[in-house]
Amino acid sequence: MLTRRAFAIGAGAAASASLLDPGFGRGEPARAVTRLPVPQLIDAAIHHNAIGLTVSAGHHEFYKGKPTRTYGYSGPILGPVLRFRRGDHVEMSVRNELGVATTVHWHGLLVPGDVDGGPQRKIEPGATWRPTLSIDQPAATLWYHPHPHHETGRQVYLGLAGLIIVEDGHDLGLPDQFGVDDLPLTIQDRVIDETDGSIGYDLSELDVVYGVRGDTVIVNGAITPTAHVPAGWVRPRLLNGSNARNFELRFQDGRTFHVIASDGGFLSRPVPMSVLRISPAERFEILVDFSGGQPVVLETGPDRSMGLFGAISDAGTDEYAPVMRFEVGSASETAGRLPSQLVEPAAIAPVEAVRRRSFVLNNGVCGQRTRMSNHDGMPALIGINGRTHDPNRIDAETKLGTSEIWEITSVGMAHPFHVHGALFRILSLDDKSPPDHLKGWKDVVLVEGKAELLVKFTKPAARGYPFMYHCHILEHEDAGMMGQYVCT
Ligand code: C2O
Ligand code: CU
Ligand code: CU
């Protein structure tokens, strides 16, 4: 049996594709917000490098008059954008008013294991966590989200996610007016009950095996919103904040845009593209030319990365669904530009790798059968190298200052693999060299078959607070497709 959610994937795509006004006249009930919400910007430098966040539950309207119970950082849903400068030491203070334990993980931030916010770094209800974050990496778009074991999927789904912008003082002349031509866009999918606005997170077996997927795309917490942008170059900072879904983004008019940065920072030069796949937890910064003045819809294609299940549920649907719309005003006086060169990332020398490890990610699907953990006494098959996550087991020991080649193999479906506390370069994807937009520093990679990564360890993590590596399909992570490593 397909679940409601599973069914929604195919049905949702087909339904929105049939609308003449794609999604913007979405009938009943009315969307609560039509203009793109821009999160608050908290610039650490302006706040003397001390920032407080409160994690709490609240209410947010996706649909008018139907408040949804959600979670958020210092607000009812999502969180402020935090801006950090390289070289600064930022004192964070995170108060947990959720009523349940949480953690805050700084995804992509290169900090030691004890302040990384992994599953061991629990903030109990009513408690406040005060890590100092030493910012020590090039400019990049990162994010923060909860990481309590078995609970990450639910807490993110209910709304916990925020962006981080790291700046390093290099001025490339890019658009940089926050919320105007430098636009944070957190793209997610949800199943929202249209009668009462609720979002549920009760997992079926299929949800665990394939990840929770929704039929409604939200951007910064709003359904198909409209952004008003100046004529000229605009720089969306894209985050796929979904639990499981890959987006395949393109503009409806087929225009070319330029990818300028991936997870870990700038590429060496802009990469022109017209379709961009972005997997859970991945970030890309792109530059889009709006000087022509025409409004345009950003849309996403069906997720083709679900293995056997995708072949069933997406059969026959090749349709794109709207994500958001851009309307163009007059040109801004301080417009940024598209540079021809960005930043040359350090050359990669795989020979310097001190060892090779291999990780096989399995979501429990072998052939046509799905097998869940402990069924008939069988061991869990959602895991890495045949083992499910054990917080008391260190899976790998690495040496600070070295690099290793990690070979990742996906079984059952494509898995977005993520490493904490380190950045990597993709050496190969299915034995081929990666496309240009995946040649820079990364911390997440969608592995369809096999990927070879050169992972560089620059931050320490001891036994009490090891770094995690895991599939960023949050239901897989929660089910145990996660391991941990120390770095000394
Ligand atoms: Cu985005 Cu282990 O995290
Ligand atoms: Cu992370
Ligand atoms: Cu996975």
Tell me the layout of helices and strands.
Elements: H1 4-17, E1 41-43, E2 50-63, E3 66-73, E4 81-85, E5 89-96, E6 105-107, E7 128-129, E8 132-134, E9 140-145, H2 152-157, E10 162-167, E11 182-190, H3 205-210, E12 216-219, E13 222-223, E14 226-229, E15 233-240, E16 247-251, E17 257-262, E18 265-273, E19 276-278, E20 283-289, E21 296-301, H4 307-313, E22 321-328, E23 353-363, E24 365-366, E25 369-370, E26 382-384, E27 396-398, E28 403-411, E29 415-419, E30 422-429, E31 444-447, E32 450-457, E33 467-471, H5 474-479, E34 482-487
Parallel strand pairs: 1-4, 2-5, 4-10, 11-15, 14-22, 23-28, 27-34
Antiparallel strand pairs: 2-3, 5-7, 5-8, 6-9, 9-10, 11-12, 12-13, 15-20, 16-19, 16-21, 17-18, 17-20, 21-22, 23-26, 24-25, 28-32, 29-31, 29-33, 30-32, 33-34
Strand content: 35-45%
Spatially, the strands of the biggest sheet line up as: 13-12-11-15-20-17-18
CATH top level of the largest domain is: Mainly Beta
Mean of residue pLDDT values: 90
Radius of gyration, Cα only, in angstroms?
Answer: 21 Å
Which architecture of the largest domain per CATH? Sandwich
Secondary structure: number of strands:
34
Unique bound compounds: CU-O-CU linkage, copper (II) ion
Total discrete domains: 3
Which spans have pLDDT < 50 for at least 5 consecutive residues?
Answer: 1-23, 367-380
**Largest sheet entry:** 7 strands, mixed
What percentage of residues falls in helices of 4 or more residues? under 10%
Our count of helices gives 5
Name the structural class. mainly beta
Within the CATH hierarchy, at the fold level, what is the topology of the largest domain? Immunoglobulin-like
Distance between the termini: 48 Å
Cα shape: globular
CATH superfamily of the largest domain: Cupredoxins -  blue copper proteins
